[in-house]
Amino acid sequence: MPELPEVETTRRGLQPHIEGLCIREIIVRNARLRWPIDANINQYCANQPLQHINRRGKYLLLGLPAGHIIIHLGMSGSLRMAHHSEPASLHDHVDIILDNDAAIRLRDPRRFGAVLWQDGDVNQHPLLAKLGPEPLDGDLATVLWQISRCNVPLKNLLMDSHRIVGIGNIYANEALFDARLSPFRKASTLDLAECNQLANSIRHILETAIIAGGSTLRDFVGVNNQPGYFQQTYAVYGRTGLDCPICHQAIVKTKQAQRSTFWCPECQQ
DNA sequence: ACATCTACCTGGAGGC
DNA sequence: TGCCTCCAGGTAGATG
Q1: Chain B nucleotides covered by protein, CB below 7 Å
Q2: Per-residue pLDDT tens for A136-155?
Q3: A87, A142, A160, A200 — which has fewest CB within 10 A?
Q4: For residue A103, what pLDDT is reported?
Q5: Tens-place pLDDT, residues A103-131
Q6: One domain, residues A111 and A163
Q7: Which positions of chain C lie under 7 Å from any protein Cβ?
Q8: Beta strands in A50-207 (DSSP E)
Q9: A169 touches strand C (CB under 7 A)
């Protein structure tokens, strides 16, 4: 489930293999992702140099002279490098073929992902224009203070990309546990010290996951179908009934806004 | 304006 | 073994 750390790991994994190369063509085997892939995408991208690969929230941005290819991995998407002649499997929907015969291959079984084109300034794209700030850039405690002046539960706040980007269900659960804050608490009740505490936890959780992902970068250029990141180990996520690592009480699972919340009732009052 | 709910999709797990 | 049901999740768009 790609959240910010997995997307950033993907970006770092692809970067040395693609920057400076030319796109020969884009092969779309199945255009039916979250939004249909533009049938004319080759008109924008073929024979164009890949100048850089950036990230905005959970979106990967492939920079071409005239615009950007925007890729979102949804919840089951992964990118890896393959040789263009390597047979594609069932869910390998898109290949971006490069002029050295390599391919950036998108695999996405559940097709919640997206491959889009945006002319000119990529931040003008409707999906990017309204995104909140990056959690790892700037003063996160101040950002949290500013966005927390509202009446939503803390977990919903962290998962709302229009308020802050990059944090999905897994890392929202983990960050709130690390900060010893209840996922059900109303955001507006946080004081500055608690915003600071939560900022430290979010940074710690995300940076630790990125470092863990970095140790697996070699897998981006392999013959297997594994994405370039591994399942991390978590303190609360997916650990219903198991011991809290701090107080050893049982971790509880609750539905919150149609999503599973994992938390320790003792540590996160 | 703001908060919450629904829909999209499919592999895997569990029950019978 | 096979069929059925449920669950996971990001986010736009609809609804309250």
Answers
A1: 2-11
A2: 999 999 999 999 999 889 99
A3: A87
A4: 94
A5: 999 988 888 889 999 999 999 898 898 89
A6: no
A7: 7-13
A8: 52-56, 59-63, 67-72, 78-83, 92-98, 102-107, 114-119
A9: yes
